[in-house]
Amino acid sequence: MRRLLLVTTLFASLAQAAEPIAIDVHRDANCGCCTSWIKHLEANGFAVTDHVESDMASVKQRLGVPHRLGSCHTGVIDGKFVEGHVPAADILRLRAQPDLIGAAVPGMPVGSPGMEMGDRQDAYQVIGLDKDGGEQVLADYPAD
Question: For the chain, which has fewer Cβ within 10 Å, the N-terminal or C-terminal residue?
Fold first, then answer.
């Protein structure tokens, strides 16, 4: 009986781990790197709802994305913004920090998810933002 309970628990855990994580992505129709970032998310267990927008500036303003942290697309997960080419692992890190309202990779650094160009990688950081406007580095990616 105990073995059956352990096996059942294991399978339930595996099924739960495979459950996709819902995220909304707002993007401009003419941006190719945005669709590449979406593919990165989907390859890492996210279920993406893609919203093509005509006015990304108003989307960012509505979601509270500071201009200094801006990039080309904006995701929303658990009520938090995900600005730019944030790696999937760092989105999970954002979700685990209740004090943060969002995370961003400012600009469009080469080598970040969706901005791959061969082996080239620019240095970039993933910046977390709290409700008071305070910033903290969630991840630091060095240049190659």
Answer: N
Beta-bridged to residue 50, according to DSSP, are 25
Q: What span, in angstroms and rounded, lies between the C-alpha atoms of 40 and 32? A: 13
CA distances from 70 to 38, 39, 63, 83, 124 (A): 17, 21, 12, 7, 14
Residues 6+ apart with CB under 8 A from 73: 25, 26, 27, 28, 31, 34, 37, 56, 83, 84
Q: Determine the pLDDT at residue 17.
A: 55
3-state secondary structure of 137: strand
Going from the C-alpha of 112 to that of each of 1, 36, 47, 69, 86, the distances in angstroms are 49, 11, 20, 15, 7
71 burial level (CB within 10 Å; 0-12, 13-18, 19+): buried
User: Contact, 110 vs 84, CB < 8 A?
Assistant: no
pLDDT digits 0-9 by tens, 105-133? 999 999 999 999 999 999 999 999 999 99
Give the dihedral sign, CA 115/19/102/82.
Answer: positive
